[in-house]
Amino acid sequence: MKNRHDFMIALGSNLPSHAGDPVETLRAALVALADSGASIEMVSDFYHTPCFPAGAGPDYVNAAARVAYSGDPEEFLAMLHRVEQQFGRERQERWGQRTLDLDLIAAGSLVLPDLETYIRWRDLPPDQQMAKTPDRLIMPHPRLHDRGFVLVPLHDIAPDWRHPVLNLTVSQMLEALRDADKEQVIRI
After folding, report:
1. How confident is the model at residue 32 (pLDDT cuts 50, 70, 90)?
2. Would the pTM of this model clear 0.90, i.e. be above it?
3. Residues annotated catalytic, as ranges
4. Architecture of 4-187 per CATH?
């Protein structure tokens, strides 16, 4: 039997899917994850959040979940992509509108593929973030510490998780976030 890993994911939707509106899509996606072999350990509240980047489409519904899965991070990411496809996700535009977005945020203290590559992607200038896509899995998510729509839901499920590179807990990262970024994340 493969090792069972605990993963944290961010869920988002700003377009309807066959399951319904974005809230119903996220609920159905959690069921689809469980049907695909994931054990949903904890789910945050759902939140309304502004579209990112601003003006790229309707506002989002976001959440976070802690999930156990028997497989390595690459296998888990492939499963997340399969579930996204079940809900009509099309990868045409980076940070574009989507029926379902399942982002792999972290797996414990793993840093992938290595510290140097992680730091290079974390420090990528904003103008290049939208244009470049990594050719391999980067974990933890290189910009999770900058995003209220990730940190607020993540705080619901893992306030004490410590970022393996920044050495900050989710609570500390959220506290350091600008108030304006936190205030835009509204519990449903």
Report:
1. very high
2. yes
3. 89, 98, 101, 103
4. 2-Layer Sandwich (3.30)
